[in-house]
């Protein structure tokens, strides 16, 4: 029997006395339960009283091979008994060296240099600073601006937030942020009537061309999440946009930054989303699935051309200026190596495609739901767009918090769903079974019925 002092209520009470949680209005927890998790098994989380929750969102899109994965845990324990950390300036270690070698081998061609950081936002910061500093070192100090997609999200440090288009954040922190140029997203959901996703991508590329014709001279880079704008509402678009983006960046001499933090490592059906367009960006940001949800780690990969722009005699003052205390942490690097080894040893992508097909089949009936405007999917990411009126796509008032109703219903049924506003999405760990997908979808459907009622 669980001791009361370590039960759910006791732990939640202790937490709420001192802990401030992310992306949370803390007053909500006067009525919304705070769930203390004590362990995980595969696709499941277990609370302090033994209640199980199916992790339908991979714990913020990080966990790909299951909680407490024994293979990764063993690698971590082995590394912890050897070397936990060492300064990464002037020193190095084999886990970081090997990880860099393996990442260069599996990412799109031309990404030959690896810069380590410790979270996704930091990887984006590195890419932004490195792009700006590259142009500065090349004698183009006038290039100080960035282009981002409407509806984009790239993290919550100030630089990453500056190239994000989330209204609430920009309204709140506007005085602290850079101002990017925004180009319309190629989001297929927002296509013109009768327009297919390829045509939407082509039209949006023409609009990007117009923007670059006016502003390329002051632009460092275009930053996008390839194929899926995740935190922006799981907006999805055709790979043709990436093909055209690469061509435009080359034509107008601006960098292409691919933020694959959420979409990398098999999430979209290929190891990296850029592969589906056959393109190599100038910078690729990776995190989340890199360590399968075990430890914070991120990398920014870039080209020899970018690296060479910083390589100079010390007094030239061209060195890249960025560091973190835990840069290249050996524990995280060893975990990442074991994550990549699982991709090497097991048919992960083949299995994901079968699971994705099953998920698509189960979600298909929702297309006819009177309050569902769209059901969309890219690999192991699927989303259901809830609306007040299907014919006009009029959204529900955000103040009604319909998505919260889905979340609460999920908790009651032992399923973790965390809608983005009125978008109910699915991003489960790759170890999920078809039966667990059935539970996810059945729970979501019942939650949607509850959410749209009244």
How would you sum up this structure, described in words?
This protein is of the alpha/beta class. The protein folds into 2 domains: 4-68 and 348-452, Aspartate Aminotransferase, domain 1 (Alpha-Beta Complex); 74-345, Aspartate Aminotransferase, domain 2 (3-Layer(aba) Sandwich), CATH 3.40.640. The chain is 37% helix and 15% strand. Strands 4-12-11-10-7-5-6 form a 7-stranded mixed beta sheet, with helices on both faces. A 4-stranded mixed beta sheet has the order 1-2-3-15. Strand 2 (44-47) and strand 3 (52-55) form a beta hairpin. The longest helix has 19 residues, at 197-215. The protein is globular. 45% of the residues are buried. The model has no long low-confidence stretch (mean pLDDT 97). InterPro entries: Aminotrans_3, Aminotrans_3_PPA_site, BioA, PyrdxlP-dep_Trfase, PyrdxlP-dep_Trfase_major, PyrdxlP-dep_Trfase_small. Keywords: Aminotransferase, Biotin biosynthesis, Cytoplasm, Pyridoxal phosphate, S-adenosyl-L-methionine, Transferase. Its main location: cytoplasm. Homodimer. Pyridoxal 5'-phosphate binds at residues 120-121, 259, 324-325.
């Amino acid at each position: 029997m669980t001791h009361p002092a370590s039960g759910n209520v006791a732990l939640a009470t202790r937490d709420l006395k001192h802990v401030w949680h992310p992306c949370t209005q803390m007053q909500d927890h006067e009525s919304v339960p705070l769930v203390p998790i004590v362990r995980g098994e595969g696709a499941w989380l277990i609370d302090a009283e033994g209640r199980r929750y199916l992790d339908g969102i991979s714990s913020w899109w990080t966990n790909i091979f299951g909680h407490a994965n024994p293979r990764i845990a063993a690698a971590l324990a082995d590394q912890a008994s050897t070397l936990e950390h060492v300064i990464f300036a002037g020193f190095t270690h084999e886990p970081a060296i090997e990880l860099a070698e393996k990442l260069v081998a599996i990412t799109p061609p031309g990404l030959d240099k690896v810069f380590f950081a410790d979270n996704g936002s930091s990887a984006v910061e590195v890419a932004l600073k490195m792009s700006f500093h590259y142009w500065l070192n090349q004698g183009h100090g006038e290039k100080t601006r960035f282009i981002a997609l409407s509806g984009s999200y790239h993290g919550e440090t100030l630089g990453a937030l500056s190239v994000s288009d989330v209204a609430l954040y920009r309204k709140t922190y506007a005085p602290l942020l850079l101002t990017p140029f925004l180009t319309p997203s190629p989001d297929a959901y927002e296509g013109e009537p009768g327009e297919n996703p390829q045509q939407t991508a082509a039209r949006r590329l023409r609009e990007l061309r117009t923007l670059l014709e006016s502003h390329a001279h002051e632009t460092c880079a275009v930053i996008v999440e390839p194929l899926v704008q995740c935190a922006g509402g799981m907006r999805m678009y055709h790979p043709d946009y990436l093909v055209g983006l690469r061509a435009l960046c080359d034509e107008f001499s601006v960098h292409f930054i691919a933020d694959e933090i959420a979409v990398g490592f098999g999430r979209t059906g290929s190891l990296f989303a850029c592969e589906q367009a056959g393109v190599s960006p100038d910078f690729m940001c990776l995190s989340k699935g890199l360590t399968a949800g075990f430890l914070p780690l991120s990398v920014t990969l870039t080209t020899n051309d970018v690296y060479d722009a910083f390589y100079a005699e010390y007094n030239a003052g061209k060195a890249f200026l960025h560091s973190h205390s835990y840069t290249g942490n050996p524990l995280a690097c060893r975990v990442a190596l074991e994550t990549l080894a699982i991709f090497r040893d097991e048919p992960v992508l083949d299995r994901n495609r079968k699971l994705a097909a099953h998920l698509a089949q189960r979600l298909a009936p929702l297309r006819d739901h009177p309050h569902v405007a769209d059901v969309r999917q890219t690999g192991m990411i699927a989303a259901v767009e809830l609306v007040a009126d299907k014919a006009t796509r009029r959204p529900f008032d955000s103040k009604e918090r319909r998505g919260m109703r889905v979340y609460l219903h999920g908790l009651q049924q032992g399923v973790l769903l965390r809608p983005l506003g009125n978008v109910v999405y699915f991003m489960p760990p790759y170890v999920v079974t078809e039966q667990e997908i059935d539970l996810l979808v059945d729970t979501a459907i019942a939650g949607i019925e509850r959410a749209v009622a009244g």
